[in-house]
């Protein structure tokens, strides 16, 4: 599944699809659900449909870094041609562990997720990615005491999240949550080299583009 020292995404995706196809007929629901594979440059998408019901699952392949919660995956071919780094580290597993850690300690375990869902839905198409909203909410969870995340405080927490976003836009730094964050719970395992690095800025593109920054502020 490797080309030279890199994980070959095409071969890996093909191998995975073959395994699913061979196993699909053993699943009791196979006769009532339609399974389709959707090729992608760095992942494998599975679409399940039954009448008007439809579910899409994206599988992202990667290599775990030691015993940490960081997985490294190959970038799309077009990114390689541009001379960028061949590998990048997705932090989805570490972020999911953070949300589970927080949920066990909140008065209302799902309130933070409702905040995230609300902003993601209402502000879809405004130029802010779901990753940016998730990052803002995660930072909010480490700055606002967890005892204040109860149902009656829902409007105030929405305001706090917007205020934090406004603060980030004013100064144009929105730091990645996992990298270089000293407030990460101890249960989230990072490679030692990642704990002391300076976190990248998700709003770096706005700092050099006044027009895009004005639009974001609006």
Automatic annotation (TrEMBL):
A GO term from the CC aspect: membrane
Superkingdom: Eukaryota
Under the heading SMART domains, the entry gives: Mab-21
Gene3D superfamilies given in the database record: 1.10.1410.40
InterPro entries of this UniProt entry? ITPRIP-like, MAB21L/cGLR
Q: What is this protein called?
A: IPIL1 protein
> Gene encoding this chain?
Itpripl1_4
């Amino acid at each position: 599944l490797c080309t030279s020292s890199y994980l070959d995404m095409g071969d890996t995706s093909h191998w995975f699809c073959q395994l699913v196809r061979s196993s699909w007929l053993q699943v009791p629901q196979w006769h009532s659900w339609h399974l389709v594979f959707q090729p992608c440059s760095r992942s494998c998408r599975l679409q399940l449909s039954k009448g008007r019901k439809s579910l899409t699952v994206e599988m992202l392949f990667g290599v775990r870094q030691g015993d940490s919660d960081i997985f490294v995956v190959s970038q799309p071919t077009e990114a390689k041609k541009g001379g960028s780094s061949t590998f990048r580290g997705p932090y989805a597993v570490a972020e999911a562990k953070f949300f589970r850690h927080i949920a066990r300690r909140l008065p209302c375990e799902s309130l933070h997720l409702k905040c995230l869902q609300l902003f993601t839905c209402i502000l879809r198409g405004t130029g802010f990615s779901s990753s940016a909203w998730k990052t803002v909410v995660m930072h909010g969870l480490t700055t606002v005491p967890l005892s204040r995340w109860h149902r009656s405080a829902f409007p105030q927490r929405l305001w706090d999240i917007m205020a934090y976003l406004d603060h980030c836009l004013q100064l144009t730094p929105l730091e990645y949550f996992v990298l270089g964050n000293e407030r990460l719970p101890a249960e989230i395992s990072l490679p030692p080299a990642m704990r002391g690095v300076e976190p990248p800025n998700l709003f770096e593109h706005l700092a050099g583009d006044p027009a895009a920054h004005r639009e974001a502020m609006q």
